[in-house]
Amino acid sequence: MVRTFPTLRLRRLRKTDTLRRFVRETELSVGDFIYPIFVTPGHDQRRDVESMPGIAQVSLDLAVREAEDAASLGIPAIVLFGIPEKKDEVGSEAYAWDGVIQKAIRLIKKELPELLVITDVCLCEYTSHGHCGIIVDGYVDNDKSLELLSRTALTHAEAGADMVAPSNMMDGCVAAIRRTLDEEGFQLTPIMSYAAKYASCFYGPFREAAQSAPSFGDRRSYQMDPPNVREALLEMKLDLEEGADIVMVKPALAYLDVIARAREAFDCPIAAYNVSGEYAMVKAAGRNGWLDEKRATLEILTSIKRAGAGAILSYHAKEVARWLREQQQGG
Ligand code: PBG
User: Fold this and answer.
1) How many helices (H) and strands (E) does the chain have?
2) For the domain bounded by 27-330, which CATH number is listed?
3) Domain ranges of the chain
């Protein structure tokens, strides 16, 4: 059989919307998304993040409303980031029983037991120097940081978190957290590891949102060097061996090749973080009328799924959920 032109015409299956839908290989669904929420202490306070239109830091009570909103749109999961009352050298509020995240978890799980509450396990939002671990002689000390990071994950699990997501990029962190959780009876709390997290400029707006920019230096001595992909696969392999249940690639858009390679290399679920800078770019271009914002958003998110991500952390999650719902209703 000659499978070539003119017998074969690929345009045949592109002729109508129905045909295109019929042969579509990748489709976004609301169930793919994890919505990030920035939580501050206090009551009835909302501070918009200037570089991320539509995203705000919200006080505990409003975080519950945000979570409710996400759940009512059908979004299965949220990820929580905390902005503490006070920061110090050792990030004490990250692992305090009554820290802002621990409180948020309890409030949200009480109201919305079905919603998956995932927590970011890192110290950068809680340390006065803004680094993701403990500083010894001007350098982020790996092994000393592990103890505090494990304690952080444990307090999240104790408060009721459904999953913990270490994003600090310390070596051995997944093993340390897994051991601590298991010892304390949380054998069934999964770990979603930010395994391949690059030292990226695309976190810029997040650092405004979480007030977590480092006060000296940068994160290149622990986050990955952007040109490397084999090293990313090694990071993921190690995290899986240490007990990670889901591995993440972050950022997503500039690292689609990493997602695709990970999808081929491993049989576990792969997540991708469509980060703050990716969100900010689309919003800025949309606001200027330079891009069709909705189409750009959906095209980017579809590319992340097509590359192989089964779960997508995205600030777009709520608007996408609304668009998908409208589409379903034929709107
Ligand atoms: C670290 C953390 C960061 C993000 C998620 N967790 C920032 C960083 O490493 O500086 C970035 C997320 C985003 O840009 O949307 N706790």
Assistant:
1) 11, 12
2) 3.20.20.70
3) 27-330
